[in-house]
Amino acid sequence: MASMTIIDIAKICGVGVTTVSRAINNHPDISEETKAMIMKVIKENHFVPNNSARNLKRSASKTIAVLIKGITNPFFNRMIQVFEKEIQRKKYSFILQRVDENQDEIEVAIELEKEKRLKGIVFLGGYFSHVKEKLEQLTVPYVLSTIGMTPEFDPQEYSSVSVDDFKESYKMVDYLCRLGHQKIAILTAPMSDVSIGKLRYEGYKQALADHGIPLNEKLVCCMKEQIESYSMENGYVVTQELLASGEEFTALFAVSDSLAVGACKAIFESGKSVPDDYSVAGFDGLDITFYYHPSITTIRQPVEEIAEETIRILFDLINKKMTHAHKIFPGELMIRDSTIPYKE
Amino acid sequence: MASMTIIDIAKICGVGVTTVSRAINNHPDISEETKAMIMKVIKENHFVPNNSARNLKRSASKTIAVLIKGITNPFFNRMIQVFEKEIQRKKYSFILQRVDENQDEIEVAIELEKEKRLKGIVFLGGYFSHVKEKLEQLTVPYVLSTIGMTPEFDPQEYSSVSVDDFKESYKMVDYLCRLGHQKIAILTAPMSDVSIGKLRYEGYKQALADHGIPLNEKLVCCMKEQIESYSMENGYVVTQELLASGEEFTALFAVSDSLAVGACKAIFESGKSVPDDYSVAGFDGLDITFYYHPSITTIRQPVEEIAEETIRILFDLINKKMTHAHKIFPGELMIRDSTIPYKE
DNA sequence: TTGTAGGCGTTATCAA
DNA sequence: TTGATAACGCCTACAA
Q1: Tens-digit pLDDT profile for residues B224-244
Q2: Is A37 inside a domain boundary?
Q3: CB A135 within 8 A of CB A106
Q4: Does A293 contact B at CB distance below 8 Å?
Q5: Are A238 and A187 contacting, i.e. CB atoms less than 8 angstroms apart?
Q6: CA A292 to chain CA mean position, Å
Q7: What's the CATH number where A204 sits?
Q8: d(C-alpha B60, C-alpha B114), whole Å
Q9: What's the CA gap between B178 and B201, in Å, rounded?
Q10: Probe site for chain B from A83, A130, A293 (most B CB atoms < 10 A)
Q11: I want to staple B166 with a disulfide (CB 3.0 to 4.6 A). Which of A23, B159, B203, B223 is the partner?
Q12: By the CB < 8 Å criterion, does B50 face chain A?
């Protein structure tokens, strides 16, 4: 039989559609017994309400969408879990929407906002270089979570939660310098990057400068554009080239953990060792850095706290408790087995 | 200003709503110039059509949904990419819907089918033990991709694409036996599991039997229920317990690569070595098995082929070219550095 | 506590 | 090539 509607159910039950609607939506104005009867009929006939119709009619729904760019990143998994938990705790429902690499997240957001009558949006990952005019089409509050922003964006215009990529990167390179390393290679985003890749690279440069180490451009290795960015493969390939170049270095800082894993592999394959021949450090705090052998020194981003704070700010915005907020969490330098002091 | 509708646009343009609709949907019956004019107005006013209304009205849309259980699994990333590419190539649009661990994927599917007027569904991951009655509520074709099915399901009732988990598991354990290993531990799903975990365990048992090796239950290690299943952490914790138990073994077969990585870590931490003290093998063919040090022997599932075939079958079903199909792909035994012959 | 009727924004039908 | 109008399935004043 063709799909049932609320009208069919009403007919079968011998009641009006309103009553059925009330039963479905747990409205108070309905007697327990009619409700039970209706629900029974619904079960028996496998009636499922059509969400499109509901969304169309509803003026507002209690739902939050999380838009995530690059779902590949294992770093987001934990965050999504926290988002879901926190959003459900607030009795809101939760939509996870993947945004393709070559899709515009704002356009997706605008469309989704209308379709689902969203109450708020979380943007996760990606670069976020959008014109103000476009952002203004978003009529519900939104928070950028772990998204590096270039400074030309007016902080008054948006809210965000993240670590200070510049500072944390600095922290790591500073640590490597203090171990006595002077020739520190970096594996980073292409120079065209404007987001976290750039921020972390700037931290590297600053740390070197503060230690009186001149920048050696031959030790600045950029990911290949044609390979998935921040992937193990990219780290592997780029490190192979670095090793083949013959340029000397004693430590390698990869701006993401996956890159670091790929780098380690390239080093091992060349017959060298981590950390005896090269110290290697990553960034993010992925689980794999703990499980890799040797375990990999990294900057752990406090994902749970970041996710929780993101939701807290979003709801404050929704409840109009504030206009905009920016929260920066400190990262944690996890010293592991992949980095050791420089030895002559 | 409040959100625009197609009526507002029609008024501004001085045309009827139908004409606007035609412009939006690239209908043939409209002159190029009015269309251009309308599109210009739409751009200027940032009009975005409401999807709920479209879905409600449309009788059918060319869209395929991929429902994925346990988005954590990195194994799915590549598959999703292929799905997206193939679906777009067919000029269909693609929806990725995450299904929570404690959600019923069929119910999600039924709801989504109505909401989005789906043409077809792909189920990815999970266990899939559903009653026939429920499956029958799905009125569009669907394909199970890389989902282990217990034999009691009638193959006439559904379509599927996967590897033969039993056979591939057998292949791996057989290989370990041929290396001379006799005491082979397995890291597998809890015995209550009915899906791939069970199938892979059965393959292990059969291979041991065929080599005349009695099953030692102390070497059958089940994942902890309270830890994320098939995770590195689970492999780590369970292997620590195995090592602590003092039960002797020379090889360890983990039914997933992530478990294998965790196992390796536990072994290294105990002061032992892979592969010198213990050979370790995984299953799935994740990238990390190549990048780990030592690289990990595994069964590679041909993800691209599986994904492509899934879509091919789905479209054959949609176009009524067949009733049901089951495609089994062979896995590939990737012999790496984590397994070596048994030495006295 | 229950039912009737109108409208959410779009597309499809049909007539102009 | 265009436009008026009736659905699509549901929710919600408002009336009973």
Answers
A1: 999 999 999 999 999 999 999
A2: yes
A3: yes
A4: yes
A5: yes
A6: 23
A7: 3.40.50.2300
A8: 10
A9: 18
A10: A293
A11: B203
A12: yes
- Indicate the range of A68-72, A128-132, A337-341, B215-219 predicted with least confidence: A128-132
Tokens found for residue B6: 């197609």
Is B335 within a domain? Answer: no
Instruction: Tell me the shortest Cα–Cα distance from A123 to chain B, in angstroms.
Output: 17
Nearest by CB to B232, which of A55, A80, A291? Answer: A291
Predicted TM-score (pTM) of this structure: 0.93
pLDDT higher at A275 or A229: A275
The answer to whether residue B21 is domain-embedded is yes
Please state the domain count of chain A: 3
| Residue-wise DSSP of A52-86 | HHHHHH-S---EEEEEEE-TT-THHHHHHHHHHHH
B288 in reach of chain A (CB within 8 A):
yes
Task: Identify the segments of chain B with pLDDT beneath 50.
Answer: none
Predicted confidence at residue B28, as pLDDT, reads 86
> Which pLDDT belongs to residue A327?
96
> Is residue A127 pLDDT above 90, yes or no?
no
A139 and A86 housed in the same domain: yes
Which residue's CA is nearest to the C1' of nucleotide C9? B53
- The residues with which A334 forms a beta bridge, in sequence order, are A298
pLDDT at position B153 is 74
Whether A185 and A270 share a structural domain: yes
Is residue B172 located within the same domain as residue B274?
yes
CATH number of the domain encompassing residue A30: 1.10.260.40
Q: Which of A84, A232, A268 is closest, CB to CB, to B287?
A: A232
Q: Is A228's Cβ below 8 Å from some Cβ in B? A: no
Three-state secondary structure call for residue B168: helix
Q: Which nt has its C1' nearest the CA of A16?
A: C3
Cβ–Cβ under 8 Å, residues A282 and A257: yes
pLDDT confidence tier of residue A2, bands split at 50, 70 and 90: low
Q: Which residues contact A179 (CB under 8 A, 6 or more apart)?
A: A251, A279, A339, A340, A341, A342
Task: Please state, for a pLDDT cut of 70, what percent of chain A lies above it.
Answer: 99
CB A135 within 8 A of CB A164: no
Distance from CA of residue B312 to its chain's centroid? 16
Query: Per-residue pLDDT tens for A230-287?
Result: 999 999 999 999 999 999 999 999 999 999 999 999 999 999 999 999 999 999 999 9
Q: Do B74 and A74 touch (CB under 8 A)?
A: yes
Residue at minimum CA to C1' distance from nucleotide C6:
A57
Q: Are residues A296 and A309 in the same domain?
A: no
Is the pLDDT score of A1 beyond 70? no
Hey, are the CB atoms on A291 and B265 less than 8 Å from each other? yes
DSSP structure class, residue A212 = T
CA gap B290, B237 in Å, rounded: 23
Average pLDDT over residues A19-39: 89
**Greatest alpha-carbon span in chain B:** 90
Question: What's the whole-number average pLDDT of chain A?
Answer: 93
Comparing CA positions, the residue from B4, B50, B42 lying closest to residue B23 is B42
- The answer to whether B116 faces chain A, any CB pair under 8 Å, is yes
In the block, tokens 């009636």 appear at: A47
